[in-house]
UniProtKB/TrEMBL annotation:
Its EC number is 1.-.-.-. Residues 9-321 form the FAD/NAD(P)-binding domain. It holds the Pfam family Pyr_redox_dim. Keywords: FAD, Flavoprotein, NAD, Oxidoreductase. Residues 360-466 form the Pyridine nucleotide-disulphide oxidoreductase dimerisation domain. This is Dihydrolipoyl dehydrogenase family protein. It is an enzyme of class 1 (oxidoreductase). It comes from the Bacteria. Its cofactor is FAD. Belongs to the class-I pyridine nucleotide-disulfide oxidoreductase family. One of its GO terms (molecular function) is oxidoreductase activity.
Length: 476
């Protein structure tokens, strides 16, 4: 191996996914010299193995389901989806797993891209080992930002590696439709991928250890999604664990804790995430390799005034949009500290990721969609808030009936009875993903109920659910 002279920057960013890109964008906009280190593809997990491919796969599935609920249109929607066309559409949205465009974007903002594996080798120092084995030492005058994301965590079942299981990466990039697919897990990845592959022709069996799907949302969200998956032909088994998994002559054989034997062509484990921090040199700065990194609201790592952890690695909210929000906060905080500007770190200030605690939105792109922001009823009660849940059947909203025959869905707002503001909102039903930002504004803005009465929803849209929710709060 050869080693070049070290190169000094104001900021060094480990990881060129959406989070790292946004940190670089903000620090460059502030005039700081910035290096970005990436060992895989510029654009990261979201662009190639998560958000973009999964939503490209889901879009035709949801569009067909919606069309089948519209009189005069359902009769024209016959036969199976064109799986090769759907997969080709997915490939287009991943740029065929090439990152030329995103690399050009980094160059366009003036950030230097260093390809290779980056490791901390001391305070403010990152050593990059390139694909050809050469090493380059990067030093940071002001900050190093760890934006390396997370990876799928596989359970410790004996022989699982020999089974060659799918994780989220294989599930979103598979070149062909498996005839039979076992999905282990009941969270977002599990439900979305079960939705996709069932619609594309797989016989899907879901094995869920807990009582239901989407355990981090209101219980009715998982219930409605499970009902729809079952109606579509998936076999959803809750309260079920995997005891063993083997691959015999190419066939996956799963044995459950109930003694059931299930055969499949592929098995997807969607059972959690782990931080990509196991081989980035954390031990050289007194931190535990492979650990989640604890940060303050400016995303600075506890006990290190030069080290930031942004996105999945801090385990605050494992969502691309929330990581990008954190990146904007972190980039601004790094720049303020570097240039001596006043740090606005109070709640809801320019350098505080307050929304991580109070207003995290998420959409699950199943059929029906499930969307939520803020706290569930149980979470609000556990946090000590005096709250009341207000529920509305979405089928009572005129816009929902126009959207789809037999529209089935539900909405809940969790009202803080002391301040009369919203602590959380959950919506389940076709098309509700486009409504969640209005809920996010209400929760993040702490808009009083009295003021929400004056935000008049357009008629006849599904957003009229806001009026129904307010009426239910007033009248009960």
């Amino acid at each position: 191996m050869t080693e070049t002279d070290s190169i000094a920057y104001d900021v060094v960013v480990l990881g060129a996914g959406p989070v790292g890109e946004n940190v670089a964008d903000r620090t460059r906009a502030a005039g700081l010299s910035t290096a970005v280190v990436e060992s895989e593809l510029v654009g990261g997990e979201c662009s190639y193995w998560a958000c973009m491919p999964s939503k490209a796969l889901l879009r035709p599935v949801i569009a067909r389901a919606d069309a089948r609920r519209v009189p005069g249109l359902r009769q024209s929607v016959h036969g199976p989806l064109d799986a090769p066309a759907v997969l080709a559409h997915r490939d287009y949205y991943t740029s065929h797993w090439k990152d030329d465009g995103q690399a050009r974007w980094l160059d366009g903002i003036g950030a230097d891209l260093h390809r290779g594996h980056g490791r901390l080798t001391g305070p403010r120092t990152v050593t990059v080992t390139g694909p050809d084995g050469t090493r380059r030492v990067l030093t940071a005058r002001h900050a190093v930002a760890v934006c390396t994301g997370s990876r799928a965590a596989l359970p410790g079942l004996p022989g699982i590696d020999e089974v060659r299981p799918w994780t989220s990466r294989e599930a979103t990039s598979a070149p062909a439709v498996p005839g039979r697919l076992v999905v282990v897990g009941g969270g977002v990845v599990a439900t979305e991928m079960a939705t996709v592959w069932q619609a594309l022709g797989s016989k899907v069996t879901m094995l869920v250890r807990g009582k239901g799907l989407l355990a981090r949302m209101e219980p009715f969200a998982g219930e409605l999604v499970a009902e729809a998956l079952s109606e579509a032909g998936a076999d959803v088994r809750t309260g079920t664990s995997v005891e063993s998994v083997t691959r015999e002559n190419g066939t996956v054989v799963v044995v459950t804790d109930a003694g059931d034997r299930i055969e499949a062509d592929e098995i997807l484990f969607a059972t959690g995430r782990a931080p990509r921090t196991d081989d980035i040199g954390l031990e050289t700065v007194g931190l535990e390799p492979g650990s989640w990194l604890d940060v303050d609201d400016s995303l600075r790592v506890t006990g290190h005034d030069w080290l930031y952890a942004v996105g999945d690695v801090n385990q605050r909210a494992l969502l691309t949009h929330q990581g990008k929000y954190q990146a904007r906060i972190a980039g601004a905080a790094i720049a303020a500290r570097a240039t001596g500007e006043t740090l606005l770190a109070e709640a809801w200030g320019a350098h505080a990721a307050t929304a991580d605690h109070a207003a995290v939105p998420q959409v699950v792109f199943t059929d029906p969609e499930a969307a939520a922001v803020g706290l569930s009823l149980a979470e609000a009660e556990q946090a000590g808030h005096r709250v009341r849940a207000v529920d509305v059947d979405l089928s009572s909203v005129a816009g929902a009936g126009l959207y789809a025959d037999g529209y089935k869905g539900r909405a809940r707002m969790v009202v803080d009875l002391e301040d009369e503001i919203l602590r959380g909102v959950t919506l389940v039903g076709p098309g509700v993903g486009e409504l969640i930002h209005s809920a996010t504004v209400a929760v993040a803005g702490q808009v009083p109920i009295s003021r929400l009465w004056h935000a008049v929803p357009s008629y006849p849209t599904i957003s009229e659910v806001w009026l129904r929710l307010l009426e239910a709060y007033r009248d009960n």
